[in-house]
Amino acid sequence: MDMEKELKQALDAHGKAIDAAIEKFEGQLAEKGKVDDEIRAEVKALSEKFESTITELAQKMEAAGGEPEVLTAGAEFIKSAQFKALAARQVDKARIEVKNTVVADSTTTFPNQRPGVIPGDFAPITIRQRIPVIPVSSNAVNALREASFTNAAAEVAQAAEKPESDITFAQYNVVIETIAHWIKVSAQLLADAPAVASYIDTRLRDGLAQRIERQLLLGDGTSPNLSGLTDAGNFTAFTPESGANLVESINKAKYALWATGNAPDTVIVNPADWGAMELAKDAGGAYLYGAPGTNAGMNPFGVAVVLSNHMPAGKFLIGNLAGAATIYQRQGAVVEMGFVNDDFTKNLVTIRAEERIGLGVDRPSAIMYGDITAA
Fold this sequence. Notes:
By secondary structure, this protein is an alpha/beta fold. 35% of the residues lie in helices and 22% in strands.
């Protein structure tokens, strides 16, 4: 039989018997001013039997791994020393304070705990995926790139002097910068809620990735910032045309890069600008970039569109990122924890996440950046 049912049935049966005995007890007390030994013995026997039954059921529940014994108000009263003194006629009245104990019955419900943690917003990482990564073991990288090349190659007649071409090189340095953040968490939370601890680890890593994503595009090169793709000297300026829409400017920039010997593979735009392009219509009301529901894709003129909230609205960047830029990684994302200052005495743990990287733009001529349309 279910332990809860068995306990309820036992309490009900004993409760009725005890109620009847107490009624006799109180009746004789009111009528005679005393209670017969027979009635007193009956109440005492019922009380002892009640205790024995409760003890037996509690032992069964413990053996079955059940919850500890929880008594109703009546059961607590019967087991109390005050009631036993009343039954023995040692006192004229009995009082017991019933503790504020929540007892589950068939009408009580408790919500289930959903496993894990419901995550917040995690923006996609898009720009970093388009740039190759080279591991390094120092805090700076020295690189040599072509500064200029004059191609004088030409057809030469026999015995004629051959033309001389000219090439110059320039050295540039990429400084490895540290991007980091931290959070304090109670030691109890880490010990008692492994899902929360795991989520904190994930969120701290994502925080690094989001900041690095912004730096790869917008870093101004002033330490400790990276020198991002839009930093001065890392791109060729794009000259927009008045009234041009986004895909028209992409087309113009693509073939301007082709003219310099660069085949672009990526164009980075703000999501709002790409959304406006999808909704743009011609004079007859037809969608310029494919009607909704058609698979127009995100590869205008064969160049992959990458959406980034970090790109300023009204601007775009296009280039051969796979061949024009390099991420130098000194240290990947690392999450560490420990005690800082008085953390130990406060049962707090400091969790820190950091990454050390640099960005080198090897061929600024392979990247164009500017406004989508002329003002």
